[in-house]
Design a protein that fits this description.
The protein has 266 residues and is α/β, with parallel strands linked by helices. It has helices at 2-35, 46-52, 59-71, 74-82, 100-108, 121-131, 168-179, 202-213, 223-227, and strands at residues 90-94, 113-118, 135-139, 154-160, 182-192, 236-242, 245-251. The chain has a domain at 73-251: 3-Layer(aba) Sandwich (Rossmann fold), CATH 3.40.50.150. The longest helix is centred in the first third of the chain and has 34 residues, at 2-35.
């Protein structure tokens, strides 16, 4: 009797696992059909052209790219900001992730080449496939992102949603190393979440729970604290506030000064 009961629970567990795997597989199939972009020669928007780059990749980067391009205000407002960057032939994307922002930049700067850096093997592989023959992606993490294959100079550098993971010392070193590869008048574009007033939105609360669960300790200093270190005579500085997030554009004409930031955890 006891043995039969054990077999019953094992079969029930196997059934639950099989149901979950089948449901997951069906969701992937249906979701891919819904979010697919029909690349039949008709003109596509920049967001659609980005998604086309991910349609043959695994489900995770493909679905993430769809969510990102639909929900992130950056893809609506970044083009206006990039007009001041000028001609770009080679650019750095530090913390490129799956390469979604980088793929968008490749669409914005025709004929350009991207050099991406990320510590995740899964994301590196996805970014390489998305960038195609115009991309070069290497394993690395700020501030130790230097690689012999990187060019001596970039026409622009980007770091989207990455620098808030760095402490003051690592951020200083990262900025100095980026600055060494930018000629005078070239642009460094940074984006990082800013600590909201009060307790923040539901999305903000869920993000904080996610960070805590995975052991992340991002710095989410107030905007006034973060930006003041770079706003000084001799360096071009502009700010552009997205809905709920801030993008900072700094055309550096001198090595960046030390930032005095206060981590939200301190």
């Amino acid at each position: 009797m006891a043995l039969a009961t054990q077999w019953y629970w094992l079969l029930a567990l196997a059934g639950v696992i099989a149901f979950a795997m089948t449901t997951r597989r069906l969701f992937h199939i249906v979701a891919r059909k819904i979010i697919a972009v029909n690349d039949d020669g008709r003109p596509l928007s920049p967001r659609q052209r980005v998604l086309v780059r991910y349609q043959k990749l695994s489900f995770h980067p493909h679905f993430f790219a769809w969510c990102k391009t639909r929900q992130d205000a950056m893809f609506d407002e970044l083009p206006e900001l990039l007009k001041r960057v000028g001609e770009v032939r080679k650019f750095l994307d530090l913390g490129c992730g799956f390469g979604i922002a980088g793929a968008y930049l490749l669409e914005f700067f025709p004929g350009s080449e991207i050099y991406g850096i990320d510590p995740s093997r899964e994301r590196i592989e996805a970014a390489r496939l998305a960038f195609g023959d115009r991309g070069h992606v290497f394993a690395g993490a700020a501030p130790d992102f230097e690689n012999p294959a990187l060019p001596d100079r970039f026409d622009a550098a980007f770091s989207i949603d990455m620098i808030h993971y760095l402490d003051d010392r690592a951020l200083d070193l990262t900025l100095s190393r980026i600055r060494a590869r930018l000629d005078e008048g070239r642009h460094l574009i940074l984006r990082a979440p800013m600590q909201p007033a009060g307790s923040g939105s539901l999305i903000w609360k869920l993000t904080r729970i996610h960070y805590t669960a995975w052991g992340f300790s991002p710095s989410t200093a107030p905007w006034s604290s973060f930006g003041s270190g770079l706003r000084k005579p001799g360096s071009a500085w502009c700010t552009h506030r997205f809905r709920g997030i801030t993008l900072n554009c700094s055309g550096l004409s001198q090595p960046p000064p030390r930032l005095n930031r206060k981590s939200s955890g301190s």
